Amino acid sequence: MTTRRALIGFPVAIAVLAALSLYRVTLGIPLAYLVLLTSILFWVTQATSWNILSGYSGYFSFGQAAYVGIGAYSTAVLFGRHGVNFYVTVVVAAALSAVLALAIGALAFRLRSLRGEIFALLTLAVPFILAALARINTTIDGGQGIIVSVPDFPAGIGLFQDFLYLISLLVAGAAVAVAFVMRRTRIGWALSAVHDAEDVAEGLGVATFRYKLRALVASAVIGGVGGAVFALQIGFVAVDSVFHLTVPLFVIVISVLGGRAHWMGPVAGAVLVVLLQDRLTASGLGEWQLIVLGALLIVLVIIAPQGIWPELSARPLIAVGTAAVVTAAVRLALSVDLLDALLAGLLTASVVAMVLNRRAGPAPRVRPAETEHAVAPTVPSPVDGAGRVLVECANVAKHFGGVRALDDVSLTIHEGEIVGLVGPNGSGKSTLVSILAGSRRPTAGRLIVEGRDVTGWPPHRVAHAGIARTYQIPRPFTSMTVRDNVAMAVMFGRTPRGLVAARAAADRPLETVGLAHLADAYPAVLNLHQRQLLEIARALAADPKVLLLDEALAGLNPVEIDNAVAVIRRVHESGVAIVIVEHLLRVVTQLATRLVVLDRGARLADGDPKTVLADPAVVRAYLGKRAHA
Ligand SMILES: Nc1ncnc2c1ncn2[C@@H]1O[C@H](COP(=O)(O)OP(=O)(O)OP(=O)(O)O)[C@@H](O)[C@H]1O
């Protein structure tokens, strides 16, 4: 959905939904429909809350019930038991949820070991602990449950059900608006990058900790506020009704079904899932709910892994038309309940959109890079430490348990240099690159960039200090176009820029590497060489002083290697010092102004390439076999 369409459609939808309650009697809308809509809005709120962190960033949480529980108990204890103003309890619910999120985030997001499934397990444990606390502690619940009466509400609103509906609409609308804004601003881009390749994002200057924490807090506040309203909805808050495992299961099913990369995904998912659940219950098949939902999820994950919303929004007119026609036809032909007809209409529209999208086929493959051209290699003259010192790696050691990957290695990189870093397999080259990029903390020694000691700095700050790297196996942000991959580095670079300016600034690095004509393609259509060029363009966009190329030529054919060499030379000519890790000596000697040889974690030689290659120790340790070959 374009931003313009969303900015018009969203307020209109909210106004129409509000009118359903305000003019309910005039429009003849049954109260039962309002109850159903209130339930849908609750799940829209909770699924959007989950999606803001887990859907956008890929940090799967099973702890949604913690926020629902905190919110519901804030209202139940303060309003239900002590008569505190209901709106004050909503604020308390938001504050307590935010505090919990800050505690979880401060722990989980600091430690790399708590990523992936460990994060999911951690979040799973939280509601269990809170549920036990609520059950044991008599000032909270004590196992009895708490009755929540009806709060005062403005007289003009009508029934309590209308008030509940309107307040649920307000909360769900605010949640979706937050998700929309986040998706379109820096935080959304940062979370997408975290989802696709967190280490890479961090290395490009994205302060991942900060963005993840903000997303977690926003998610918690929305979940907590939704939980506070839920207390009114259920009227009796008990541990099992709020800290229940079905809460995370439902929000995950809803978000994945609807489309977790999109702000509207949870809305589409909630409408479909809650309607389906309601219709199954109404037809006496309530116990089949989870089976039907599970089966639907399995089928959809296989045929439409991006969820229903991207399918529908790719063909909005056909989707709306099909849903309307099928709903009307089923209702008239079979005289079934309007909701049954609506469900049939929505499911048919989803299937039709999917079939049409599949028949249209995948996006056409983009032509191979034409601007790539081989440039006759020339041997540069060694500059031998000509420029000022940019980076100094002093007496660095890195131990992995008993493995001494690096031991007392010192290295200086000067302005204008291309340093070739060579050595046998396992000699510590990649480890040294990771230390130079700040993605590994040395066991001993210091990393100094332009006179500043940056040892132990997080990678995004080292990136801002002027160091960029590429990866041996290219790691593009797969959900973004080639241009946006590069724009990310500008957006979060040393002088951060907005999306529009960053996209414009991405042109230059793309031209330098010869990928400009593929700017609108997705990385999936690039071949290995083009992906490696994209790595270089992205690193270049971060405006580095020193570029670290970790085996950027691995797996390329001779023509591609010559082209890559020409690209690297162009980058160098633009004023960037380069450290290149490479097994192909032919290439390193073409490019390097200085050669550093590592052997078993120690620096064996450092000097101009000719002298180093003639060093008997180097020949013995590393080059022997190849030289003879
Ligand atoms: N995360 C890790 N845990 C344990 N040992 C590691 C880890 N990373 C690297 N090592 C070890 O450190 C040593 C140096 O590895 P490194 O990958 O830096 O070498 P390399 O010169 O880049 O090798 P290659 O040319 O094969 O890429 C090896 O013995 C390796 O097994």
Report on the architecture of this protein.
There is one protein chain. The protein is 60% helix and 11% strand. It has two domains: 3-244, no CATH class; 389-628, P-loop containing nucleotide triphosphate hydrolases (Rossmann fold), CATH 3.40.50.300. With 629 residues, the protein is an alpha/beta fold. It has helices at residues 3-22, 24-27, 31-57, 64-81, 86-108, 117-136, 160-184, 186-203, 208-234, 239-242, 246-258, 265-282, 289-303, 308-314, 316-334, 338-359, 429-437, 459-465, 482-491, 499-505, 507-513, 528-541, 558-573, 585-591, 609-614, 616-628, and strands at residues 146-147, 236-237, 389-400, 403-414, 418-422, 444-449, 452-453, 467-470, 546-550, 577-581, 594-599, 602-607. The radius of gyration is 29 Å and the shape is elongated. Strand 9, helix 23 (558-573) and strand 10 form a beta-alpha-beta unit. The strands form three sheets. Strands 8-9-10-5-11-12 form a six-stranded mixed sheet, sandwiched between helices. Helix 3 packs across helix 11 (246-258), helix 12 (265-282) packs across helix 16 (338-359) and helix 19 crosses helix 20 (499-505). It is built from 26 helices and twelve strands. Residues 400, 403, 405, 423, 425-431 line the site of adenosine-5'-triphosphate.
